[in-house]
Amino acid sequence: MRIVIGISGASGAIYGVRLLEVLAAHSDVETHLVVSRSARLTIPAETDRSIADVESLADHLHHYNDIGAPIASGSFRADAMIVAPCSMKTASAIAHSYADNLIVRAADVMLKERRPVVLMARETPLHAGHLRVLAEAAQLGAVIAPPMPAFYQRPATIGELVDHSVGRVLDLLGIEAGLVRRWAGLTSPEPEVPLAAAPATGLAAWAVSRYGADGVRATCLALQDEHGVDVVALLALWWALSHGRATGAALDDWVAGARQHGHDVVAPLRQARRAIPAGPLHDQVAAAELAAELEQLERLGATAPPPPDHAGPPETLVDAAMRLLVEHGDRDHAATLLRTLADDA
Asked: Strands (DSSP E) along 87-195, which ranges?
């Protein structure tokens, strides 16, 4: 399947980036990317990706002004096109066939060939001109799909909100990306996210109690999804610092062991849970993920380093987590989230 991805300059570059990340994992999908001039400004401004990083996610890259590119012709057999995000300027040009760049030209030939074109329109509020443009694009055959996530899945992070919108757009093309928690009716609610409630003792009991406090779960998941923080290792580190356990090499090695277990055991289970639609199998994988996290917490409690003989200046949760756990993303943002946890302690 060949899919053309256009990234325009509207705010919401993450939608185009995430689409490319997801489709890169589908060996049967060939992507053709066009990035507008304005998008080359918004991508680094709104994400942690460089332009080169984003372009490397695509199978084929086409210059914004290359009207002679293969995707500019209807004889090139692309199967669908997504503009994500789609600015009002781009939507207007598509609605009026004003093909002065490759994003608009590619969309125009897709529409004339009666192939799917999805516009993730990004603007609010909308005046009458915007509404008229979107209606005209729809009359030509485009699907208008503004990124409007549902909230029945109880999103806890920006990543979950983005994934829902991206997954629903891919639904329109018949691609199951495992990003959408399907509505199963009010009588079949999703099981609680792991660590929300479970029998535990010692460190594990402390971690479960702390995780269930107001705002802690959402902050931990934001640190996990946006900064690569292992939540179990974070809770263990938090417990150790708040209980006067050893600092230095002993603490570092202990936390490293927690991270290794998370990488080898918990992360694959989490990935599988997110990819499986709601149902019995999803529930079984979620239970396995919870059991793996609790087992690790119990093991960490049994192997925790003792209090130091000569206590030096205590390291703060923010400093220790920034040093040991934060892998990527805006470090100032990560530190702000960690301070929120420390302030709630």
From this structure: 117-121, 143-144
The segment(s) of the chain belonging to CATH 3.40.50.1950 are 2-172
**Model confidence pLDDT, tens digit, residues 119-164:** 999 999 999 999 999 999 999 999 999 999 888 877 878 888 999 9
Taking only the tens place, the pLDDT of each residue in 226-236 is 898 999 999 98
* Cβ atoms of residues 107 and 69 within 8 Å: no
**Token digits of residue 193:** 């996210």
* Residue-by-residue DSSP string for 241-286: HHTT---THHHHHHHHHHHHHIIIIIHHHHHHHHHSPSSHHHHHHH
Backbone angles phi, psi at 178, to 5 degrees: 70, 20
State the burial class of residue 48 (Cβ atoms within 10 Å of its Cβ: 0-12, 13-18, 19+).
Answer: middle
Token pair of 302, please?
Answer: 């049994």
- Residue 154: count other Cβ atoms within 10 Å of its Cβ: 12
In the chain the first and final C-alpha atoms are separated, in Å, by 51
Identify the H or E element spanning 17. helix 13-24
Tokens of 32: 């053709």
CATH of 2-172, one of 3.90.1150.10, 1.10.150.130, 3.30.565.60, 3.40.50.1950: 3.40.50.1950
Contact 102, 138 (CB under 8 A): no
Which DSSP letter does residue 98 get? -
The partner residues of 7 in beta bridges, in order of sequence, read 35
How far apart, in whole angstroms, are the C-alpha atoms of residue 344 and residue 163? Answer: 29
Task: State what percent of residues in the chain have pLDDT above 90.
Answer: 48
* Phi/psi at 4 (5° precision): -90, 130
